UniProtKB/TrEMBL annotation:
It is found in: Membrane. Keywords: ATP-binding, Membrane, Nucleotide-binding, Receptor, Repeat, Transmembrane, Transmembrane helix. The keyword Aminoacyl-tRNA synthetase does not apply. Gene3D superfamilies: Immunoglobulins. GO terms for cellular component: plasma membrane. Residues 25-116 form the Fibronectin type-III domain. Pfam families: fn3 (PF00041). GO terms for molecular function: ATP binding. InterPro entries: Ephrin_rcpt_TKs (IPR050449), FN3_dom (IPR003961), FN3_sf (IPR036116), Ig-like_fold (IPR013783). It is a single-pass membrane protein. This is Protein sidekick-2.
Length: 116
């Protein structure tokens, strides 16, 4: 982002250009399970701490896949809204273990995913 900043002091003014670099969130949300059935799970997460948001959070990306596939074959849910901290994953296969990860998203992109 580019900003023109004008400083006036003692009747004199000067304008400088300030440039900031956008960065994706640098920390992952802390995720926990809140409710599970045979075919679905509801997860929730804490907001990424302010010092790691690197801008306004626009939403979250939730990805999940069968455990042991190194997250190469995943399903992705895009959650819009900075204050949304819960998602339900449905249509899961009975007796299958899943890896579920969550990352915050800002204007610069997707941040760090939570540990499996």
């Amino acid at each position: 982002s580019r900003y023109n900043i004008t400083v006036t002091a003692g009747g004199l003014s000067d304008t400088v250009l300030a440039v900031t670099t956008l960065k994706a969130p640098s920390a992952a949300p802390n995720v926990s399970k809140t409710f599970a059935t045979s075919y679905s799970i509801t997860i929730n997460w804490e907001l990424v701490p302010c010092e790691h948001q690197n801008g306004d959070i626009a939403g979250y990306t939730v990805r999940y896949g069968e455990m042991g596939n190194n997250m190469t074959d995943t399903t992705v849910l895009n959650i819009t809204g900075a204050s949304v901290t819960e998602a339900t994953i449905s249509n899961l296969t009975l007796s299958t273990n899943y890896t579920i990860q969550v990352a915050a998203v800002n204007r610069a992109g997707t941040g760090v995913f939570s540990n499996a």
